[in-house]
Amino acid sequence: MLPESNIAIQTHQLSKTIGTRRVLREIDWSIAKGECVALLGDNGAGKTTLLRCLAGSLQPTAGQVRWFGQAVSSDVRQRRIIGMVAHESRLYQPLTVRENLLFAARMHSLSDPMKRCDEVLDRVELGFCADRPTREISKGMCQRLSLARALIHDPPILLLDEPFSGLDSAGCDWLLDMLRDRRSEGRAICFSTHGDDWKHVADRVTRLKDGALLRANAIGDATAGDALRSAG
Amino acid sequence: MASKLWWLIHKDLMIEYRTRQTWTSMLLLCVIIAVVFSLQVKLPMEHRTATVSTMLWLAIIFASQVVVERTGIAEHQDGCWDALTQYPVSASTIYLAKLIVNLVAILALNCVMVPLFVVLTDVPLLLHAGAMSLVIGLGSLSVAAIGTLVSAATFGQRQRGAVLSLLALPLVLPVLLSASEATRLAATNDLGNQWWRWVQFLGAFTIVFVTLGIVLFGAMIEE
Q1: Pairing outcome for strands A70-71 and A212-213
Q2: In this predicted model, what pLDDT tens digit does every residue of B23-40 receive, in sequence order?
Q3: pLDDT tens digits for range A158-216
Q4: What chain A residue is nearest to B11 in terms of C-alpha separation?
Q5: Per-residue pLDDT reduced to its tens digit, B179-198
Q6: What's the DSSP call for residue A111?
Q7: Cα B169 vs. chain centroid, distance in angstroms?
Q8: Chain B residues in contact with A107 (beta carbon < 8 A)
Q9: Is B90's CB within 8 Å of A79's CB?
């Protein structure tokens, strides 16, 4: 059990029903500061729904999500805690790379949005195409831009939904380095994936099956716990 | 809030400037209605004024459905809406931004449509330009307020366009009635008590729907 002050995200009996289907079932879970957790599971296991509940963009049917000990509320200022890279790009295609980032920076009320954009663009190595329309850049570059958008306000919690999909091996290596850097800065990271990329960066792996959390494992024990369902 | 509101509006107008999807469709629809109507309807001036006033507002209401639907579609592509609702921005700010963007489009449409109807039908819609501007301002604002609110209620629905029309059109009937009557009276040089009562009704309706939008938008977009 982690000490309360060290917990970035915590869920308590988190359940989500969409229509008549129970997508998430009574999930008790936590992620510590500076921890990188991989979320595995088959298609339809509930990974995206769990990430969206953790991000506060989906209201749980029952249970609670807490960020740094605070229950997620309707206070919009709380949203600065989260940076999310979703399965879709969430980018405005007619706007340029820089305009997309500037818009995000302005929505977060950053003091010098232009300077911050340039810093983040350099960090994700997209400075060379900053003035190109987003619709003209490749899928891998879109993925980098999505990550840049999630990092623009320097959030302490980073949630990523299948961030490796559509990336070539160089792109995957780049993303792994980026995640390691964020983790070393003390950010809490949770990402869902289908591949084996998690082995290179995750401190812990958690599997979802039919909306229920299987035993959370340390890396060396990743498969042994699959059969064991745990309450947390 | 004012700064975020401005940048939300700026973003939508920039996207429209680059894609020219919404304004082109709405203008085309209205010009076709105006031209076909003016060619087909031959009535004495007294009846023509009443019919033109109603046709003008019908055209504006139908075109506003195009505006509201298109701005919603643009926001929903690639999950942009989810990102927007995750920024530290209140739902009422998002509503006001969408309302203003839709209002700007509808007002621009009016700037084309009113002179076009005057030229094509000879009805003196701009006889009292100030009074007409008031009616157009209030009517456009209420149509935009209703459209923006109903648009939020239909986010993520299949057959969104049909559902949007089904929900919005009954709600805009009072706007159609009061704006058409106020327009007819202004065009017939009758700015008496009756005209003022229609304007007051239109104003009250506008206030109700803008307030409802600010209050309810958050609940409507929650999931």
Answers
A1: unpaired
A2: 888 888 888 888 888 888
A3: 999 988 887 888 888 888 888 898 888 889 999 998 877 778 888 889 998 888 888 65
A4: A103
A5: 999 999 998 888 888 999 99
A6: S
A7: 12
A8: 4, 7-8, 84, 87-89
A9: no
For B9, nearest residue in chain A (alpha carbons): A103
Residues of B in contact with A59 (CB under 8 A): 222-223
> Which residue among B19, B82, B88 places its CB closest to the CB of A79?
B88
Q: What is the DSSP string of A36-92?
A: EEEEE--TTSSHHHHHHHHHTSS--SEEEEEETTEEP-S-GGGGGGEEEE-SS----
Q: Is B89 helix (H, G, I), strand (E, B) or coil?
A: coil
Using one digit for the tens of pLDDT, what is the confidence trace for B197-219? 999 999 999 999 999 999 988 88
**Interface predicted TM-score (ipTM) of this complex, two decimals:** 0.84
Nearest chain B CA: its distance from A152 CA (Å): 12
Which of helix, strand or coil describes residue B105? helix
Asked if the Cβ–Cβ distance from A95 to B18 is below 8 Å, we say: yes
Radius of gyration over every alpha carbon of chain A, rounded to an integer in angstroms: 17
Contact A157, A82 (CB under 8 A): yes
CB of A73 within 8 Å of a chain B CB? The answer is: no
From the DSSP assignment, how many helices (H) and strands (E) are in chain B?
Answer: 8, 0
Cα gap A53→A9, rounded to integer Å: 11
- Residue B188 pLDDT: 87
Distances, alpha carbon A115 to alpha carbons A98, A110, B53, B117, in Å: 11, 10, 53, 50
Is pTM, for the whole model, over 0.95?
Answer: no
- What residues does each domain of chain B span? 2-222
- CB of A59 within 8 Å of a chain B CB? The answer is yes
- Partner residue opposite A108 with nearest CB, options B19, B80, B88: B88
Q: Do A76 and B88 touch (CB under 8 A)?
A: yes
- In chain A, which residues have their Cβ closer than 8 Å to the Cβ of B90? 76
| Interface residue A106 vs chain B (CB under 8 A) | yes
